[in-house]
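This entry is listed below:
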Amino acid sequence: MPAPSTDFKRALRQLSDKEKEDLLLKAVRRDAELYDLLRYEILPEVDLRVIQDEHAERIAELLQKANGRVMNRALSRALGKAAKEIARAKRITKDKRLEVELSLYTLRLVQEEYSQYFDGYFQSFYVATVRMLLRTAKLVPKLHEDLWLEYKPEIDEILTTLRGHEKHRQLRYALPKELELPH
């Protein structure tokens, strides 16, 4: 995205408040992410918890609406869309902890309601779940040290569950037994 030129900034300053409002509303109607960003920045009632709840609801809906001839593949696609939803929430809030929270919420949902699809012929859903877990495990050390201990038991439990399936032996990379934190 190009940086606004000085001419552009000068022209923007010369616009009346009504013209600025019209321009902003026009831009917000075209871009849903910009709308969410401005909602988060401007409205006092829209805080981190509201954004987290909205995105968690969308993620649950994506997984529930997954359907297709091969449910395993449909869930794998839904998991990819959930990852995009998580990335969108992070772009809006710039909060790394929110990204970890939503990823763990998604993994909990998969573990509780969709783990029976790990056993299918196709392993795409299992691999997508493992990749999301490993990505989440890489994010945890980037958070404050106090939060490491909060997330470690949950990640270790999901790792144990995923290692319980025979498909973990077919992965191209070794699945760790527990979350490895820097010392």
About this structure: The chain has a mean pLDDT of 90. Residues 9 and 126 are 50 Å apart (CA to CA).
